[in-house]
Automatic annotation (TrEMBL):
Domain EamA: 203-334
Transmembrane stretches, start-end: 99-117, 129-148, 154-172, 179-197, 203-222, 234-256, 262-281, 293-313, 319-338
Family: Belongs to the EamA transporter family.
Region (Disordered): 1-22
Protein name: Inner membrane transporter RhtA
InterPro entries tied to this protein: Diverse_Substrate_Transporter, EamA_dom, EmrE-like
Source organism: Micromonospora echinofusca
């Protein structure tokens, strides 16, 4: 996560005699950040000065560093946070609509990211158009996702949505094995959609297809935006565009219910769990692990969604749907593991 340097107080100098005054600052420089840009400082607070050699001090400093958490665990925590946020969002449907929940999530996420990234608005017409298209793809993806959650289980919505960018990436490949993985993923989507005799809401399935299309556009446009707008500034601007795009739908669907304090609190929690925390965890993990390993772990997202839906929402999938989730996860894993290491997806 990139934090503006103006928001961070300078660390206190170490005292003489091997003692360090509290708070102690641990500075972590991102390799991706350019010189002169932001540095993330994590402060480990202690109640009184302690000798630098004591175990308590070493433990406090270690826990204050993102490097204290292994990258695979960071990835899993980020994906778990995303799905828990979706489960919390589903609880909001009783007091507000799916479009209202989308408005709260994107609105709070945009505010947080804009404060942290502080992006400039001098982009140029071409870059501004890319950012606008990126934000609209983000809006479509989120609106369709929460509309789908209102009608189908969490595992179904996540798996079909995940299949969108997966099939797009496999379609661009000329490898024969990737055709097989694409067929496996497509078969998994058909099983989830009711090929095995399970009844699934048709409108919910259409929303899931829109999620898949929006997710694929989000990935493709996000790559183009990140090449033109460095750091997290492109994401912050795209999130702001998405929040403005869904605002009319949220107001029309929920009205003054969006101003309820409890609804606002849950909306802020959804934004943190589904947008800010997962993005920060995944970016920190990606800087410390090969892209191939990152893609393997990301393949587990549909399974995590189905598991969270079962535990938190009591959504038990039928056996054909479980097989469909396994097919999509297997296709993503196979496409990553069989591919040569030098050509692994970045």
């Amino acid at each position: 996560m990139i934090v503006p340097s103006a928001m961070l107080a300078p660390p206190g100098p170490p005292r003489s005699g091997g003692r360090r005054s509290a708070p102690a600052a641990v500075e972590i420089r991102s390799r991706a950040a350019r010189s002169g840009t932001t540095v993330v400082r994590v402060y480990a607070l202690s109640s009184r000065p302690l000798p630098a050699g004591r175990p308590a001090t070493r433990l406090t400093l270690a826990l204050g560093q993102p490097r204290a958490v292994p990258p695979p665990l960071l990835m899993l925590l980020g994906m778990l946070s995303t799905q828990v946020g979706a489960a919390v969002a589903k609880q909001l449907f009783g007091s507000t609509s799916a479009s209202g929940t989308t408005t709260l999530r994107l609105g709070f996420a945009a505010l947080i990211l804009l404060v942290l990234a502080r992006p400039g608005l001098r982009l140029g017409w071409r870059t501004a158009g890319l950012v606008a298209a990126f934000g609209l793809a983000l809006a479509v993806m989120n609106l369709a996702f929460y509309a789908a959650l209102d009608r189908v289980p969490l595992g179904v919505a996540v798996t079909i949505g995940f299949a969108g960018p997966l099939l797009v990436s496999l379609a661009a490949s000329r490898r024969l094995t990737d055709v097989a993985w694409a067929a496996l993923a497509g078969g998994g989507v058909l099983l989830i959609s009711g090929l095995g005799g399970t009844g699934v809401d048709r409108l919910g399935l259409l929303c899931c297809v829109a999620v898949a299309a929006g997710w694929a556009g989000y990935v493709l446009l996000g790559k183009a935006v990140s090449a033109r707008v460095p750091g997290s500034r492109g994401l912050a601007l795209g999130m702001a565009v998405a929040a403005l795009a869904v605002l009319p739908f949220g107001v029309a669907g929920s009205g003054t219910a969006l101003l309820d304090p409890w609804t606002l609190a849950l909306g802020a929690a959804v934004a943190l769990l589904s947008s800010v925390l997962p993005y920060s965890a995944e970016m920190a993990a990606l800087r410390r692990m090969p892209a191939r390993v990152f893609a393997i772990l990301l393949s587990l997202e549909p399974a995590i969604g189905a598991l969270v839906g079962l535990v938190l929402l009591s959504e038990l999938l039928a056996w054909p749907q479980v097989a469909g989730v396994a097919c999509v996860v297997g296709a993503a894993l196979g496409a990553t593991l069989v591919r040569p290491a030098r050509s692994a997806p970045r």
